[in-house]
Design brief:
Chain lengths: 450, 305
């Protein structure tokens, strides 16, 4: 028994002395649980996506249209954009013509157009248009569902008004009034109630769609709800216009390949930084630095190796994506090489940073695991960042994973030109320059030999 | 050739080198002898330009060395204490890498690789990965990598740690040959046998200070006795140690008493004493003092402590 206890105690003693292992075994799982919890809205007062930029062009003068806009604003889900900001910082209301270029420029991914003829005497129901860049399938489906829910649940009376208008057009005002009176009387005599109140409701388009929409959004998939949803869908015509990525050959694979590629690359360069310590510990650093070799040259050579290795790995991943899932790689070769180079450089600089700020391979590995997983989760490699709380969405912009995914999506999904890629590439190059500068400075300052 | 003047190096509160001064002459085989932690590797690192001094200066051929000036390093070769080789690469690939770092290329590089591999008797294993080599072979290649660019000064920082006797002898023979050919060598070790066998001049270092400096003979004259008497440490001789305590120093290492008499003590008195107690003469051996005795004399400690 004492032998068992001794061996048991030994293992705990090793664990306690190995801070890296402690971090890996305790902090990383907690962090992942926290992030996943945030994504799925656990413990949040307002679960679900938040602050998704949504442009709304309201060309209708009908108060009901404004009611839709107000309803969208009231939702925490959307950050409603209705104005176009000119170069001189003045603003004007958005028009439909603004939307496509702004979606291409990633100002927002979704736009709702409420046309001037929201109600038309020529047809029954509402006519709306949603323009989108569905670069993220999960987010896109969620946004469409939420938009429809808001429209259906917030302005049910619009449907009634539309029905009445269509009816009046079809029957003529006199016959329509006569029809409505007869309908009200029949309802009152069959089901009870005040014929005048019923007639007022009919004339105002108040057909009780409120209850319908509430029941359709509430329960899960029984026949009644399906019928209601089907009924509403027939009355509300929403034109879905995919602005970006409609020619992509393999949309689903294209949407996810970037995130996973950058995550694997980060793990690879982290391993490379650990190999840096092997050289240091084996005495090779002593030999190299006693030769006409500077510390900066050591770090930069490792950096360029990382970039080339990263390029190789990304090329392999994307070619596999093309061969296995039909991702169009060869069609975007130029942009992809540019994006891969910049992403590989940024990821490698991250590896160099780990080498510069940690003092052992174990510490580097532990920190790498912590940061790679965190950056991948927060940066959008696993889930759409719109599913996260606002502060995490803000945080995402400070991760290189986010920008790497933006670059890959820009090339493969949006088919961005070199010029269109420049802002993202600029951010990645900026990350590389800043991180490498700090790493070289830190590496030069740090004691290499104990 | 190498001038070390009042060099000081500190690590936080620890003074690793304390105003060390040394002059190494061209063609010399200089031994730096001291226990672990004495400051040998620190001094080697400073000469190799791996660390900056906190005081004093080091000049090679009248050019002051610095950690940022790479030009003087062309004249230096460092054999680190560790096996500083790329284990996955072959012997030949390792030598090519290190040769290229010193500017060798083309036919000259190929020739140097061939010559160096032949010199350390690894030609037949040139294409094998270093990780498949024995410890002795790796040590030989470790030495070879420092010689690719034909340095003027070779710094050997305990290059035979963990090496089998056969490989150690091979390394010694090769270093002696290189020294005969004119290469200046600084060899740090805590093995006095190595320093005695190889070095024409020895500096004894402890706690960051050079305690003694000179050839083996010069160093040994610093001892206050010419002979050391050794006898086994057992019950039979226990009383003798007490008797001798006032006549000189008695230390015990590995079960052997070592009596180092005062200069005015006559050894005839010792033998009279032992005969009177019927201790057989075969128990006692008289030896010329060693560097170990000198280190003990200088520091009061054994070099292996």
């Amino acid at each position: 028994m004492s032998v068992l206890l001794t061996l048991l105690g030994k293992d705990f003693a090793i664990l306690i002395r190995n801070r890296g292992a402690l971090v890996l075994s305790l902090i990383v799982p907690m962090l992942i649980i926290y992030i996943v919890g945030m994504v799925f809205g656990i413990g949040r007062s307002n679960p679900g996506p938040t602050s998704i930029p949504l442009a709304v062009v309201n060309a209708s003068s009908d108060p009901a249209a404004q009611q839709i806009v107000d309803s969208l604003r009231a939702q925490g889900t959307f950050q409603v954009i209705t104005n176009y900001v000119n170069a001189d910082k003045t603003t004007r209301p958005l028009v439909e013509g603004d939307l496509r270029p702004m979606i291409h420029d990633r100002k927002f991914s979704y736009a709702l157009v409420i046309p001037a003829d929201l109600f038309s005497d020529d047809r029954i129901g509402l006519h709306l248009k949603i323009l989108s860049d569905p670069r993220n399938e999960i987010e896109s489906q969620m946004v469409n569902g939420l938009l429809q829910k808001v429209i259906f649940s917030s302005v049910p009376n619009l449907l009634g008004k539309s029905l009445i208008a269509g009816n009046r057009k079809f029957l003529g005002t006199a016959r329509n009034d006569q029809f409505n009176r007869a309908l009200a009387d029949n309802i009152a005599s069959t089901f009870g109630g005040d014929p005048k109140t019923i007639l007022d409701n009919i004339n105002n388009g108040n057909f009780g769609f409120n209850q319908l929409t509430q029941s359709s959004s509430g329960g899960a998939g029984n026949g009644s709800n399906n019928a209601t949803a089907d009924f509403l869908a027939r009355l509300v015509k929403i034109d879905q216009v995919q602005v970006v990525g409609k020619d992509v050959k393999s949309p689903q694979a294209t949407q996810i390949v970037g995130g996973y590629a950058v995550m694997f690359l980060l793990f690879a360069v982290s391993g490379s930084s650990a190999a840096f310590f092997d050289e240091k510990n084996s005495g090779i650093f002593r030999r190299l630095l006693s030769a006409p070799v500077s510390r900066a040259q050591l770090l930069w050579s490792r950096f360029f190796y990382g970039v080339l290795f990263g390029l190789g790995q990304l090329t392999t991943l994307f070619l596999a994506g093309q061969l296995l899932y039909g991702v169009d790689v060869t069609g975007h070769l130029g942009g992809l090489i540019l994006a891969c180079t910049c992403v590989a450089a940024a990821c490698t600089s991250f590896g160099m940073l780990l080498s510069a700020i940690t003092r052992s391979a174990t510490a580097a590995n532990s920190l790498a695991t912590l940061l790679v997983i965190t950056m991948s989760a927060v940066g959008g490699a696993w889930f759409p960042i719109s599913l996260m709380p606002a502060f995490m969405q803000h945080l995402a912009h400070y991760t290189l994973v986010y920008w790497a995914i933006e670059a890959f999506n820009g090339v493969l999904w949006a088919g961005d030109s070199f010029v269109q890629l420049l802002p993202i590439v600029g951010v990645l190059i900026g990350i590389t320059v800043v991180v490498m500068s700090f790493s070289v400075w830190r590496f030069n300052k740090s004691p290499l030999f104990e | 050739m190498l001038s070390i003047k009042e060099v000081t190096k500190r690590y936080a509160s620890l003074t690793a080198l304390d105003q060390v001064s040394l002059e190494i002459r061209a063609g010399e085989f200089f031994g730096l002898l001291g226990p672990n932690g004495a400051g040998k590797s620190t001094l080697m690192s400073l000469v190799a330009g791996l660390r900056a001094t906190d005081g004093g200066s080091i000049a090679l051929n009248n050019v002051v060395l610095s950690t940022t000036d790479a030009s003087t390093r062309m004249q230096l070769g460092l054999v680190p204490q560790d096996i500083a080789l790329y284990q996955e690469l072959s012997a030949e690939q390792n030598l090519r890498v290190f040769g290229k770092l010193y500017g060798l290329k083309g036919a000259e590089l190929r020739q140097r690789v061939d010559e160096t591999l032949a010199a350390v008797q690894l030609t037949d294993r040139r294409r094998d990965a270093v990780k498949t080599f024995s410890g002795g072979m790796q040590r030989r290649l470790n030495l070879a990598a420092a010689l690719m660019h034909r340095p003027q000064l070779l710094l050997c920082d305990e290059p035979t740690v963990g090496v089998d006797p056969q490989s150690r002898n091979a390394i010694f023979d090769y270093l002696a040959q290189l020294n005969r050919e004119g290469l200046t060598i600084i060899y740090s070790t805590h093995y006095m046998e190595e320093a005695t066998r190889l070095c024409s001049r020895i500096g004894i270092i402890d706690k960051g200070k050079i305690l003694a400096l000179g050839s083996l003979d010069e160093l040994l004259t610093q001892l206050p006795f010419e002979e050391e008497i050794r006898f086994p440490a057992n019950e039979q001789t226990a009383w003798l140690v007490q008797q001798l305590a006032s006549q000189g120093a008695v230390t015990t290492i590995d079960g052997i008493h070592r009596f180092q008499p005062r200069p005015d003590y006559r050894l005839s008195e010792f033998y009279t004493l032992t005969e009177s107690h019927n201790l057989p003469a075969r128990l006692f051996t008289s030896q010329r003092p060693t560097l170990e005795a000198l280190f003990l004399h200088l520091t009061g400690r054994n070099i292996r402590e």
